[in-house]
C-alpha cells in the first residue's frame, strides 16, 4: 500500500477517518482537533501541498 506524499490529502484522509469514528463514539474535546485538522487540510489542498 502506497501512502500519499501530498500532506493536504493525508490530513484529509485522517479527518475523514476521525469523522467516521465520531459517528460511533463521542469525541468530546477531540472535536476541536478535528476542526483544526479540517482547516489545515483544506488550506494545504488549496495551496497544492
Estimate the strand proportion.
Answer: under 5%
Number of helices: 2
**Residue windows where pLDDT falls under 50 for at least 5 positions:** none
- The assigned structural class equals mainly alpha
Oligomer: single chain
* Annotation, overall tally of beta strands: 0
How does the major sheet shape up? none
Mean pLDDT: 76
Integer tally of domains: 1
The CA-CA distance between the termini, in Å, is 21 Å
Helix content: 55-70%
Shape: elongated
Helices and strands, in N-to-C order?
HH
User: Nearest-angstrom radius of gyration?
Assistant: 12 Å
Question: How does this structure look, described?
Answer:
There is one protein chain. This protein has one domain. The relative contact order is 0.24. The two termini are 21 Å apart. With 49 residues, the chain is mainly alpha-helical. The model has no long low-confidence stretch (mean pLDDT 76). 69% of the residues lie in helices and 0% in strands. It is built from 2 helices and no strands. The chain has helices at 7-22, 30-47.
Amino acid at each position: 500500500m502506497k501512502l500519499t506524499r501530498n500532506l493536504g490529502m493525508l490530513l484529509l484522509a485522517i479527518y475523514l477517518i476521525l469523522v467516521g469514528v465520531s459517528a460511533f463514539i463521542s469525541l468530546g474535546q477531540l472535536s476541536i482537533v478535528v476542526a483544526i485538522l479540517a482547516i489545515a487540510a483544506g488550506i494545504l489542498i488549496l495551496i497544492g501541498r
